[in-house]
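[Discussion] Sanity-checking designs against the backbone

I'm trying to build intuition for which residues belong where. Below is a C-alpha cell string of 454 positions. I'd appreciate it if someone posts a full sequence so I can compare it with mine line by line.
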C-alpha cells in the first residue's frame, strides 16, 4: 500500500475524490470547521475556490464515488462542518429519506406537518423593522410575566392574550428574520424565566421559518415556544432561582415543571394542543435519556424537537443566577456535539445553519484587539459581517464607526480587519441596549461612513 503524502495544489486544480487534509489558512477562518474531508461534489470545490488559493491533499487520490442523490449529498456536506455554505437551494427537507424518519408530528410515524417547503424572504430591511420589533418585544415580555404571575395566583392562562402576542412575534419574523433575533441578544438576569420564554418563542419561530414551514405551523411552533416553560411557575422560587448545583432531590422537583406545564395547558383548544406536548416533552432526548418519559427519537413530538434546540441555545447564552451567558459559537458547538444523542441530528445541523457563525448582535474581538458589535451579515460570506467598532485595542471606549469586513477594510495600522473570536454577551462592559438606544445600531446597519459620537 503506497505511503500517503501531502501535495500542495491550486484550488483551480481540485477534482472529485481528492482528500483535502490542510488549507492555506486556519480551518476556523473558513466554513469548513471540521478538519479534513473528501471532495464529493462540485459544490465542495466551489466552496474551496471561494475561500482558499491552494490546499494540501493526499497524494493518493481516493476513487471518486458516483454522484449521490441530492438528500445524501446535502447531509454529507452538513457533516463536514458546522457552517458548510449552501450554494444552491436545498431539496425539500421533508423528502429526504434520511431525515423523514426523524421529522414526526405528535406521537406518530407519519411525515411532519409541512409537506411543501416555503421559501421566505425579508419583506423589509432590519433598520425599518427594529423599532417595531422593540415595541413587540417589550409588550410580549410583559405579557409573559403577566401569564406566569397569574398562574402563581391561581388564575387560568389567558390564551387569547397569548395568541395575540404570538401573532405579533410571528408577523415581525416573517417581515424580517433578524430584528427580533437581535433583541434576544440583550440579556437580563432579573426576568430570566419570562425573557427566556419569549426568546425561545422568537428563536423557534425564526428556525421554523428557516425550515420552510407554512405560516399556520409557524404560529403553532411560536405558541409552543412561548408556553414551553409555564410549568416553572409551580416550582418553588428557592429552587428555581438557586445559585449553584441542584441536589438530587431539588433536581427531581425541577424536572416536574414539564408535567406541571402539561397539566396547566390541558384546557387548550384542539388546534393549540400541540403546545401541551411541547411543554411535556421539550426535555426528552433522542437517545432516551431525557425526562419525564424517557422517549426516544420518533416518539418525541416533532415540534418539541424544534423548541428543545431554541431552549438549549438561549439557556446557554443567557445570564442566569448560577451561570454567566456564553458566546453563541460555544452554544452552537455544544449543540453540534450533542446531535444524535440529545438532539435530532438533522434538526441540530439546520439550527446551526439558521443561527450562523456571527449572528447580528454578537460581540466580537478583532485580530488587532479591538471590540465590535455585529450589525448585519452577508449571506454570501457570513465570516465577514458589517460591524460597529466600540472599543479600542486597550478595551477603552472609542469613537464608534462602521467597518464592512466584506470590503477588506484596513485598521489604523493598515492591516486587514478580521474577527479573531466571538465574546460572551456583556464582555468588557459592552451594553447592546446602550448602542441600540443611541441609534448607532440602526444607523450602522445602513451606513458605512464614520459615525460621530452620539
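Best answer:
Here's mine. Compare freely.
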Amino acid at each position: 500500500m503506497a505511503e500517503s503524502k501531502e501535495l500542495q495544489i491550486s484550488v483551480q486544480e481540485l477534482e472529485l475524490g481528492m482528500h483535502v487534509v490542510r488549507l492555506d489558512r486556519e480551518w476556523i477562518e473558513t466554513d469548513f470547521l471540521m478538519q479534513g474531508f473528501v471532495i464529493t461534489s462540485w459544490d465542495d470545490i466551489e466552496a474551496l475556490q471561494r475561500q482558499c488559493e491552494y490546499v494540501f491533499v493526499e497524494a493518493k487520490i481516493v476513487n471518486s464515488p458516483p454522484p449521490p442523490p441530492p438528500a445524501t449529498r446535502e447531509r454529507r456536506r452538513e457533516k463536514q462542518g458546522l457552517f458548510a455554505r449552501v450554494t444552491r437551494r436545498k431539496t425539500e427537507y421533508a423528502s429526504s429519506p434520511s431525515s423523514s424518519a426523524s421529522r414526526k408530528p405528535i406521537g406518530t410515524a407519519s411525515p411532519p406537518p409541512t409537506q411543501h417547503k416555503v421559501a421566505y424572504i425579508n419583506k423589509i430591511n432590519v433598520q425599518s423593522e427594529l423599532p417595531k420589533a422593540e415595541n413587540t418585544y417589550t409588550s410580549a415580555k410583559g405579557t409573559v410575566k403577566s401569564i406566569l404571575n397569574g398562574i402563581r395566583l391561581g388564575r387560568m392562562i389567558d390564551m387569547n392574550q397569548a395568541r395575540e402576542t404570538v401573532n405579533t412575534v410571528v408577523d415581525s419574523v416573517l417581515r424580517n428574520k433578524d430584528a427580533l433575533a437581535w433583541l434576544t441578544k440583550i440579556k437580563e438576569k432579573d426576568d430570566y424565566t419570562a425573557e427566556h420564554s419569549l426568546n425561545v418563542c422568537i428563536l423557534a419561530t425564526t428556525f421554523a421559518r428557516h425550515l420552510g414551514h407554512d405560516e399556520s405551523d409557524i404560529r403553532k411552533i411560536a405558541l409552543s415556544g412561548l408556553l414551553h416553560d409555564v410549568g416553572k411557575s409551580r416550582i418553588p422560587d428557592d429552587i428555581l432561582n438557586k445559585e449553584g448545583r441542584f441536589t438530587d432531590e431539588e433536581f427531581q422537583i425541577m424536572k416536574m415543571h414539564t408535567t406541571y406545564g402539561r397539566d396547566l395547558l390541558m384546557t387548550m383548544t384542539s388546534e393549540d394542543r400541540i403546545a401541551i406536548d411541547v411543554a411535556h416533552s421539550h426535555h426528552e432526548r433522542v437517545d432516551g435519556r431525557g425526562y419525564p418519559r424517557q422517549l426516544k427519537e420518533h416518539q418525541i413530538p416533532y415540534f418539541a424537537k424544534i423548541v428543545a434546540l431554541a431552549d438549549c441555545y438561549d439557556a446557554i447564552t443567557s445570564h442566569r443566577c448560577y451561570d454567566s451567558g456564553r458566546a453563541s459559537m460555544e452554544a452552537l458547538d455544544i449543540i453540534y456535539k450533542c446531535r444524535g444523542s440529545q438532539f435530532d441530528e438533522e434538526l441540530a445541523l439546520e439550527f446551526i445553519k439558521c443561527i450562523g457563525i456571527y449572528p447580528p448582535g454578537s460581540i466580537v474581538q478583532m485580530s488587532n484587539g479591538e471590540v465590535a458589535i455585529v450589525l448585519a451579515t452577508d449571506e454570501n460570506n457570513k465570516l465577514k459581517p458589517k460591524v460597529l467598532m466600540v472599543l479600542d485595542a486597550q478595551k477603552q471606549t472609542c469613537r464608534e464607526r462602521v467597518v464592512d469586513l466584506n470590503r477588506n477594510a484596513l485598521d489604523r495600522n493598515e492591516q486587514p480587519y478580521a474577527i479573531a473570536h466571538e465574546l460572551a454577551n456583556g464582555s468588557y462592559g459592552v451594553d447592546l441596549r446602550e448602542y441600540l438606544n443611541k441609534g448607532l445600531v440602526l444607523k450602522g446597519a445602513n451606513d458605512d461612513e464614520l459615525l460621530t459620537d452620539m
